[in-house]
User: Fold this.
Amino acid sequence: MTRKLLLAATAALAPMAFLAAPAAAQTVAITNARLVIGDGGQPVEGGTVVIRDGKVVAAGTGVAVPAGIRVIDAGGKWVSPGIFAGFTRLGIVEVDGVDQTNDTGPGNVGFHAAIDVAPAVNPKSSPIAINRAEGITRAVVAPDNSGSIFAGQGAIIDLGADMDAVSKPRAFQFMEWGESGARAAGGSRPAAYAALRNVLFEVRDYIRAPGSYVDRGKDAFLTRADAEALVPVVQGRMPLLVHVERASDMLVLLQLRKEMPGLKLVFVGATEGWTVAPQIAAAGVPVIATALNDLPESFEQLAASQSNIGRMAAAGVVVAIGTINQDEARQARWEKQYAGNLVALTRVPGATGLDWGAAFAAISSRPAEALGLGGEFGSLKPGRRGDVVIWDGDPLEIGTSAVNVFIDGVEQPLENRWTRLRQRYLDPKDGALPKAYQR
Amino acid sequence: MIRTLIIFGALAGLAACDSGGTRAQSAASDPAPAASGPGKGKGYSHDPFPSTYRAYPGAPTLLTNVTVLDGEGGRIDRGQVLFRDGKIVAVGQNLDAAGATVIDGQGKYVTPGVIDIHSHLGDYPSPGVQANSDGNEMTGPVTAEVWAEHSVWPQDPGFGRALANGGVTTLQILPGSANLMGGRSVVVKNVYARTMQGMKFPGAPYGLKMACGENPKRVYGSKGRMPSTRMGNVAVDRQTWARAVEYKRRWDKYEEKGGEAPGRDLAMDTLRGVLEGEILVQNHCYRADEMAVVMDMAKEFGYHVSAFHHAVEAYKIADLLKANNTCAAVWADWYGFKMEAYDAVPENLAILDKEGACAMIHSDDANGIQRLNQEVAKARASGIKAGMHISEEHAWTWLAINPARALGIADKTGSLKPGKMADVVLWNGNPFSVYTRPEMVWVDGALLYDAKDPKRRPVSDFELGQPGEGDVK
Assistant:
């Protein structure tokens, strides 16, 4: 009891900024902005954004500011939608190397497609706070696979400083294909292919007669729970995100979809996508690509090039940036730098990059669109969630900081472990008392 | 056959010098037995795999109308850089450049080539398949006898990417960090060759890769052997250094006074080299408290840590590092992937620098090495946001003269000073911007990358005949 009281007293003395809960959703207008809508267009000067009840009401030039609401004069600063991180494991890992804090994989439970990351999302995990401070406001959060090509159901989260992080649970199913899929399926691509077809047709059986579907437990190719989880995938109500790198593996999936026309495929990674970009575009399959892979890191990435995204976009593919297998539990913040690098390619002879507007869209509206959620997230078009960031410079340039971050119209605290440690150690030498007393 | 005979011949000659030579000399010159040995440092070869690197020919070149960051903190706006015969001739304005190719770089920057002090290109090459995984001799916590150069595959496609996208002209390739003493590093010029020796930086000292913290204790603890704790790490280190001191004493005595040659121990050769100051300690270490322990251990046995690598908590002991004259090679903003990386801050490099410690950027990554200029830009921006003044020309020391010093090659490269190697990058804009890329890269005055010329773009053997061969990458 005494201990509890003491702790409570200590907490009360802690810096308010660090513990402060965010305020309620505000009605707010941000004026005089160098405004980025996030739909692929270029920034415009003198723009205004109005947010009401957590949503964007209007954004553009010549937008009237309703009377009596909070007005923030951006003073010509950049204002954009928050970054929508295309593929992450934010919020389900605190320290990758500490197993108890790593909820990415299913372990040995025997469930795969049924796995749902939503209950694992911890809004207080430090990567969420660190990325929030850098203008990342939403993220695709995917589980990792083990023992099956199916990893489970991923979520869309917000990075707000409240306990309600999951914007959309079970937003998609995630599947490993290519080398990693082959490994999970027993060791070869044909094994993975057989497993996938078997599962999809078993799910069709399940749909016809759920009551008579026999769960054969761990010995089965498909548990009842996994079958149930895949119903919306087979029926085309839930996107199937597939990690695939090699060109031929992508074409196999496009071919398979002819048998399963309902599948809403989204490719993730897609290092060799540029070599089959016309086919991907014709199939209408969006891609959440790794931006700067240019090494033949594996035999399924031999054609790796930083021009991959630019070339796919030029062929008409909807392409977003994601960070699969790139410190995706914590470095979604790097997506801004990646997008900037794609702009840099426009000045390299022979390379194909993205213009600035398209590059920004690749980390805002395009990932939302790839998930079928472009009407709700990712841009400042009316009706979208009020995720807005005021920046002190070009958001794709190195060194630019987020000055104000709004999520669902709520202005967010930007303190985190980084800012606390920096404050303590800006002068590393000991003071009158040990560092442990310095806050 | 002839080649084989020549190699055997050379070996036979060495053997004669090592033992027979000593005896003959003593017998001839001095009636007292064993009065002199082969001489200091001559008991065995210190360079059995000598560099065969040769600079490629280059045209005398004047880069003009550029912003010059000289790598030692100097800056010249609308400046010029002149190099000829592989060497920097002059940096300034209005240089006499008769006969030189003139390249007008209006709006562009010129810097010394980027130096990465921490790379695993070649020993963990692409493709990263098990058959190519040659960076960690994970069979014992002390493998000071292994040399990274014997794992380096000179066809790693990563070398070409680091050159073309990163402007990297020199890199240190290290063994991994599974072991307390992981073996020797090798410094190479970033120029493709058929052999490792053909890339080896002439005259660069070797490094000894050491590691503290989680990796050694995890790897060996999980095998049920020592070390399984941090205290175990230090105990094994100290026991090994105690042996090395004894080994050095015996070899010193033999080399000076002769007598029977002590038994060779390749691991101890390396540690003796460290104790002699001939081999530089490159120490993987994350936590501040552990770095402090390592620096005391170094004093106990009489060696010096050249640089701590990764050093995510170096900022906490910037003053201590400065006092020990030990550098820190860090990332801009990696954090949290394991427990000992939990307290990383993006101001690490800037705080170290502000406190007067020797600090630099490093990659440890085949992708990161392609953007070290951006990593420096991030570290600088973090420092500026924290209230520090850090000029562009000063920040460029973090990937130029500072790593050159920590590698012991600052007299040869790492800045645009007359007489140094003409390792030069022309950037197509300000290299602190995300929108900037190398436009031309010279190594020892030879043009080895030109963004405008597909023929000046290296393609490793591995990529020939593969999808994307010769692409911009």
User: Anything to note?
Assistant: Residues 463 and 469 of chain B are 6 Å apart (CA to CA). DSSP finds eleven helices and 17 strands in chain B. Residues 1-29 of chain B have pLDDT under 50 and may be disordered. The domain at 114-418 of chain B is CATH 3.20.20.140 (TIM Barrel).
